[in-house]
Every structure is written in C-alpha cells, then in structure tokens.
TrEMBL record:
Pfam families: 2OG-FeII_Oxy_3
Keywords, sorted A to Z: Dioxygenase, Iron, Metal-binding, Oxidoreductase, Vitamin C
Lineage, top ranks: Bacteria, Pseudomonadati, Pseudomonadota, Gammaproteobacteria, Lysobacterales
Residues in Fe2OG dioxygenase domain copies: 172-281
UniProt entry tagged with the keyword Nucleus: no
Native source species: Luteibacter sahnii
Protein name as annotated: 2OG-Fe(II) oxygenase
Cofactors named for this entry: L-ascorbate
Length: 286
C-alpha cells in the first residue's frame, strides 16, 4: 500500500504561541507560513492561525505610512524608465514579488502584435516532466506564436524595452511568445521556472540556466474571465490592454518562490491575447 502523508489541520497551543511570538519579533507572515508548510500543516490551517494571531495582536510597529520594502529587481518609484517609455506602477506585492505595470505597450503595438501573431498561431505546448519535449496538454489550451529575439522592428523594440524594465540583458530573454485564448481557453496553475527535480528540465537548464522572472503583457481587454490568478496568495489580475504583470521567483541561496504559482483562468466571453517574456539567469541563444 502506498503510504499517504497526512497533513496537520489542527494547530496546537504551542504553535499558536510560536506564531504570536514570531509576529511580535517582526517575522513576516509568509515566512511563518513557509515554516508551517514545512512542518506539515495545511495551507488553510496555517493561514487561519496566522490571521487569528494578527487580529489578536497586530504588530506594534505597523503604523499607517510605514512602507513595506519591495526587494525586487524592478526599479523603485511610481514611474519606471523603460528606455523609450515611462511605465507607471499600479500595484506592488512584496512576496511573491509581483507588480502591475501600466503603459508598457501602446494600443497600436498591441494591435500590431495580435495581427502579426494571427498568421502563425498554433496550439501551445508545455515542457514534458520526463523528456523535456514541448508537448500539447489539456492544462494549457491556448494558441501561441513564437518570435525570435529582434526578428522584426516591433519585436526588437519591445525586447529592448522589456530588458530595460526587467533590468536584465536582452540575451537573457527567451523570444517573445504571443498567446491567444478563445472561450474556455485557460492555462492551469503552474510555475514558470523549471522544476530542478524533473528529468525533463535538464536540457532547458543547460541552456541559459533557470528562468528567474516573467513579464506578461496584455494585448486586449477581456470581456469576461481570463484573469491571471495566483492561487497561493488569492490574487487575481484582470487583463487590461497595454498593461503588464511582472513577477520574479529567484530567491537567495538558489531557492525558487513557490508562492509564484499562477495560471490563466478560463475565458468566458470574448478572447484573451497576451505576449510573454521569460528571463533566464544567464545569456541564452534563444
Ligand atoms: O494567461 C495567463 O494569464 C498566464 C500566462 C502564463 O502563465 C505564462 O505565460 O507563463
Ligand atoms: Fe506562466
């Protein structure tokens, strides 16, 4: 019989005390959560206990006006210089590192990408866990089109802008990937980084190393559905033409941030078009 690992759903008084003390000592809720997950508690039970502790005794130093620190590769400030464009920050989340950015692409650029991609769309694939090959699977039901770095003027312009924005050299970037989701089209929750324990990740890791950050740019407003969701932090972004969602997942000591689990919710009305840039830790031939 296969042993089923039981997860704890009951938080003991000792643990409640530890949570309260850790919060008072200034620990972050996400780090407390991680310790609890590592010790076999369910996510739901852990958050419940952390929330209870926060309600009972909010950290003394959490004065309104105190700004959390956003330790991110993105520049500070409300407006970021992306070379040929000023990009406005709409929202920042500290952990996982996420930012919503406005004005990354103009309406004309969005239309041009949709038009350019329409001619070469094919069913999107995912990396197979075992053999590393690009494989069609139900978890990702979109059509995609790949653009080699700098393959035409618009692609070159956007590659350059994205590199300035993400503060990583252009040659760390995979070619831009346009995706179109029709009604029912979705991308179920996944990590963008390659799971180092999967055999199939190896050929990808050998070329350019691990993926470390993602920029999803939205090429249209979606009528209904199609949100980009982060289920581990209950965060949902509603697509808006010209905006982008930035997130990074490389953490100190080579760890990868599991809170970046994310997906594209099914489109229920209209279409959804995005163009994505995945950045690697090293230069990469494309
Ligand atoms: O469609 C979405 O909102 C998510 C896309 C995504 O996860 C990706 O391009 O890696
Ligand atoms: Fe993704």
């Amino acid at each position: 019989m296969v042993a089923v690992e039981r997860q704890h759903t009951k938080v003991t008084p000792d643990w409640h005390r530890w949570i309260a003390e850790s919060l008072q000592a200034g620990a972050r809720a996400v780090d407390i959560l991680q310790t609890m997950l590592d010790n076999g508690f369910t996510e739901r039970a852990s958050w419940q206990a952390i929330d209870d502790a926060l309600m009972a005794a909010p950290p003394e130093d959490a004065a309104i006006g105190d700004r959390p620190s956003f330790d991110s590769r993105l520049a500070d400030g409300h407006v970021i210089d992306a070379g040929d464009r000023a990009v406005r920050v709409v929202t920042r989340i500290a952990r996982p590192v996420v930012a919503v950015l406005d004005g990354v692409l103009s309406p004309e650029e969005c239309a041009a990408f949709r038009g350019m991609a329409a001619e070469r769309l094919h069913r999107s694939t995912v990396v197979h866990k075992e053999d590393g090959r690009n494989t069609v699977m139900d978890i990702r039901t979109s059509d995609g089109a790949y653009f080699q770095r700098a393959e035409n003027e618009l692609v070159a312009l956007v590659d350059r802008r994205v590199s300035a924005l993400m503060r990583l050299p252009e040659d760390h970037g995979e070619g831009l990937q346009v995706m179109r989701y029709g009604i029912g089209g979705e991308y179920q929750p996944h990590y963008d980084y390659f799971d180092p324990s999967d055999k199939g990740s190896q050929p990808h890791l050998d070329a350019g190393g691990q993926r470390i950050a993602t920029l999803i740019m939205y090429l249209n407003d979606v009528e209904a559905g199609g949100e980009t969701v982060f289920p581990r932090i209950d965060f949902s972004y509603v697509p808006k033409e010209g905006q982008a969602l930035y997130f990074e997942y490389d953490m100190p000591e080579g760890r990868l941030d599991p809170l970046t689990l994310h997906g594209g919710a099914p489109v229920t009305q209209g279409e959804k078009w995005i163009v994505t840039k995945w950045m690697r830790e090293r230069a990469f031939s494309g």
